[in-house]
Specification:
The chain is of the alpha/beta class. Helices cover 31% and strands 26% of the residues. The chain has a 7-stranded mixed sheet, with helices on both faces. The protein has a 3-stranded antiparallel sheet with strand order 8-9-10. Strands 1-2 form a two-stranded antiparallel ribbon. A hairpin with a 2-residue loop joins strand 8 and strand 9. Helix 5 crosses helix 8. The longest helix has 13 residues. The termini are far apart.
């Protein structure tokens, strides 16, 4: 029995996964990803040959929407409960113009996934970077694994914005990690919380704390690992207020 959907409302076999909530297809973040991919691969191109990875795909909704637009999509999700929902999406969405598959694995094993399923033309990494202990090392991995464009949606450290987190003791002081400035964020306060991370769907899989790069340092890191052109855009005023943006980086 698949657990109840908590994050992605989709139409599957004529029924919605989260009735009464907005459809994921209409979400500004979803539309943004599709627009960005369309700029790189217009409708006139053979999108079925364009391989897209959706990292940490949660319940699989974004992967399905990208496949509906005609791309060859691989969604990667580590948590068992989420992966089962991905399989439900794969079955319920039916035939799509592109190709849709899901792989249960840790995003840090991206090279292994790539070796098994092929190199990726584009990578969508939504809500992953700020859950990692070594984000710059992960950016290097992404650069090595993508052939064209990285679409990276993430929070970045801003001491003036995250005063609430700081008051709760979740955000540390501005410091350096991997030679870049940012702030440590507490993912799990206790060992027991970390051990039960399977049920903490919106927290890190790999670490009890993660490192959030500042915006200038994130831009510097993307450039340092090799990306040539980088753009920053916000989905909404709310995202901007909470220091979350989409960083688009081309090789």
């Amino acid at each position: 029995m698949t657990d109840k959907f908590l994050h992605h409302n989709m139409e599957l076999a004529g029924e919605q996964t989260m009735p009464g909530t907005p459809l994921l297809s209409a979400d500004p973040a979803t539309q943004q990803v599709l627009r960005l991919l369309s700029r790189c691969y217009p409708p006139s191109s053979d999108r079925t040959s364009v391989r897209v990875a959706d990292l940490g795909c949660l319940e699989g909704g974004h992967s399905a929407e990208i496949a509906k637009a005609g791309y060859d999509v691989t969604g990667i999700e580590v948590r068992e409960s989420n992966f089962q929902k991905c399989l439900t999406v794969q079955e319920g969405v039916g035939r799509v113009p592109g190709r849709l598959q899901y792989v249960q694995d840790d995003v840090l094993n991206l090279k292994s996934v790539e070796q098994q399923h092929g190199k990726f033309d584009a990578i969508f990494a939504g809500g992953i970077l700020y859950h990692l202990e070594e984000p710059v090392s992960f950016l290097k991995l992404l650069f090595d694994s993508v052939q064209n464009v990285l679409i990276l949606n993430t929070h970045f450290a801003d001491p003036e914005t995250f005063t609430v987190f700081e008051e709760k003791g979740l955000m540390g002081d501005l410091t350096k990690n991997e030679e870049y400035f940012g702030q440590w964020y507490t993912e799990y306060s206790t060992t027991e919380q970390f051990r039960s991370r399977e049920k903490h769907e919106l927290s890190s899989w790999n670490a009890s704390r993660s490192f959030w790069l500042t915006k200038p340092e994130l831009l510097r890191a993307l450039s340092d690992v090799g990306f040539v052109d980088i753009a920053v855009m916000f989905n909404s005023e709310e995202d901007e207020a909470f220091s979350r943006a989409t960083f688009v980086a081309w090789k």
